[in-house]
Amino acid sequence: MSGDKYDLIVVGSGFAGSVTALSLLETCKAQKKPGRVVIVESGKDGERCGASRWTSAYLRLDKDNNLDPARIDEMDRVSQGLHNRDYCAKMYVEVPKTMAYLLEHGVKINHHVS
Ligand SMILES: Cc1cc2nc3c(=O)[nH]c(=O)nc-3n(C[C@H](O)[C@H](O)[C@H](O)COP(=O)(O)OP(=O)(O)OC[C@H]3O[C@@H](n4cnc5c(N)ncnc54)[C@H](O)[C@@H]3O)c2cc1C
User: Fold this and answer.
1) Cβ neighbours of 13 (radius 10 Å)
2) pLDDT tens across 16-69, in order?
3) What is the whole-number distance in angstroms between the Cα of residue 33 and the centre of ligand 1?
4) How far does the centroid of ligand 1 lie from the alpha carbon of residue 65, in Å?
């Protein structure tokens, strides 16, 4: 790797890092440009690492794959008002776009009523 050149160096192979790498490579492919990405991971070889390894991928969506507004109220309640409301508002806007991306990439969603 020493001396090699990359378009992107991603630190961490969790969801954030993996999707960042995928996104860059998809953009390069769409633009018919070569793209070289390296993902650097400090975890054990051959094992999934970080929080992404443990998630049950419970996404708290409504039936239309929007972030359930009750989730924001829940955050308010469990954090006793200490959570970042701007962050939640941003998530509310970004979740439908993210869900569209995941569905386009073949991710299957199971809706459970709880
Ligand atoms: C038990 C559990 C249950 C969860 N359940 C849910 C759920 O139901 N629904 C939900 O939406 N979210 C859930 N989450 C949260 C979700 O898993 C995380 O928000 C998400 O996985 C974070 O992804 P990430 O890529 O940002 O971080 P991570 O997956 O933690 O990835 C970071 C990576 O960076 C690596 N790294 C760190 N430092 C370095 C370094 N210096 N050099 C190289 N590599 C480094 C780490 O080893 C790791 O692999 C859960 C989390 C846990 C722990």
Assistant:
1) 19
2) 999 999 999 999 999 999 999 999 999 998 888 899 999 988 888 888 899 988
3) 30
4) 22
Decide: 44 in ligand 1 pocket, CB within 6 A: no
Indicate whether 82 belongs to any domain.
yes
Q: Tell the residue number behind the tokens 């390069």, with chain if given.
A: 28
Residue-range definition of the domain harbouring residue 70:
57-105
Q: Is residue 48 part of a domain?
A: no
User: Residue 37 has which token pair?
Assistant: 């990405």
35 and 61, same domain (yes or no): no
63 plus 36 within the same structural domain? no
Q: Establish whether residue 38 lines the binding site of ligand 1, counting it when its CB lies within 6 angstroms of any ligand atom.
A: no
Indicate whether 81 belongs to any domain.
Answer: yes
